[in-house]
Amino acid sequence: MDNSGEHSPTANAREAESGERRGTLTVLLVGLVLAVGAGPLACWISSIASPRFGKIIAAFDYGFEHLGVVLVVAWVVRVAIENASQRAFLNVVDSKVREQIKQSIDRFHRESLAPLDVTIKKLDDEFGFRIRKPGLLDKESLEVLKGMVLSPKLIRPEYDLYLTLEPLSEARGMPGGLIKVGSREEYYVRNITNEVQEYHVEAWIDTMFEPPGISQIDRCDFTRFVWGPEDLRTENDLRPFDLMKMRREGEIKRDHGAVWLKHVLQGGIPAGATYYVEIEASQVMRVTDIFVWNITGLTQRFRVRVGFAGGYTAADFHVDARELHHIGHDAFRDTFKDDSGVLSWSVNQVLLPYQGVEIWWAPRERAQEIDPREAPPQVVPG
Hints:
Helix content is 36%, strand content 28%. The protein has 382 residues and is an alpha+beta fold. The chain is rod-shaped.
């Protein structure tokens, strides 16, 4: 049997403290008995003892009574001294504890809170949240900034734009200096929330240079619209929309010098899902012109390509592109590729809403004479 703890210092201290308390209490009880009981006891002894012992009995009565009073007073004084000592001790302990707590708080602030405060400020600067400071932007503007940039619900991981320059199919009777420009936009849109999100597809092409009497095949219009889940991106799974039906239902219409396509994805985009969208259109533009394309949603990567058809080749046109983006012109030009007559540029950085690209072209023989700023831009949002 292990009895090592029976006589430990802690146990001995507890026993000593208990003994002291018992001794103190005994002194109090004896004092009370002597102080209170000495008189009655002396009277009883006097009644049975001989009168000659009267003085002795009176002396004992006086002595025991005062001894009891002395013991009671001594007990009171001891208790008072002990309490005073305890209070003094506690004051000393409290002072030391308070000092220790203060030192711990200072150390915690110095070693933990201060570095954390610096880190928070760095994050604040890195993510641009300084714009939230009172007085910089109104509440409505901050909500727009939050919804489109700081905390969007949808993003586009990839966006591809493909332009095709070709002659008008029927040029007889048409004004000179016009060409047909086909456009195809393909992109993915991802729901980065935990809830289904409604998504609106919206695009438009202008009809500024569409001449009267133009043939149906060359008319400015949308020619294909497809969307569906990312993992079902095949011709068998992605069925093109009935564009005639969309025109009847007002989802494609001509208005204010443009053809508009507006469609709400039925059922929305499920939480965490990625959908594929493809839109094709054609429009009449000038043989020397500028095509401006900007993207309305936050996009991670963007590529634009320019090809030729109907007898046109890259040798017939001088084509250049300018970034509407913070990447910088030199970095953007470094992405240029000529893949068998298909020209391309790309932006492999995040594109903020309404950033994009500007494409301009001119016939080779006039390319050196053309300043793209002289031609009014044809703006087409993505």
